[in-house]
Amino acid sequence: MERTLILCKPDCMEKNLAGEVLRRFEAAGLRLVAAKSMRLTPALLAEHYAHLADKPFFPEIVTFMSSQPVLALILRGDGAVGRVRDLLGPTDSRKAPKGSIRGDLGTDNMRNIAHASDSVENAELEMKRFFKADEIPA
Ligand code: ADP
Hints:
CATH superfamily: Nucleoside diphosphate kinase-like domain
CATH topology: Alpha-Beta Plaits
Distance between the termini: 12 Å
Radius of gyration: 14 Å
Order of helices and strands: EHHEHHEHHEH
Oligomer: single chain
Strand order of the largest sheet: 2-3-1-4
Bound molecules: adenosine-5'-diphosphate
Number of strands: 4
Shape: globular
């Protein structure tokens, strides 16, 4: 059983699609184990997106991701990390297939509805980044 960290991004919240995104995950058999709304600070985003710090679009990501509160979720299920990434689709919403969350609901490379952990190792780190220990069920 794996757990994974999702962030419903500002474009998702702006489009009123958080419920639809969660519905798709739940319909696929994933279980919601924690959720909270939070405004991400530039410092937290610099840590979360450290692998993109040297990209020209990095400042734009920080501005976008801190523009309004996001909905952070932890989902649990067999193979949850890979299954959630499959349901989400590739980074660029314009290239994501129809039927995927980003393909159906996203706009472009940056406004792509949700973040999802890309490995079991990162999922564990990211859960601790966005949730306190007592907010995560055992
Ligand atoms: P993913 O979110 O699919 O794991 P990355 O870790 O590569 O993708 O990128 C993190 C986030 O940075 C993306 O979800 C997206 O919001 C933004 N991003 C990535 N590439 C670009 C780009 N070329 N232009 C603008 N924003 C981007």
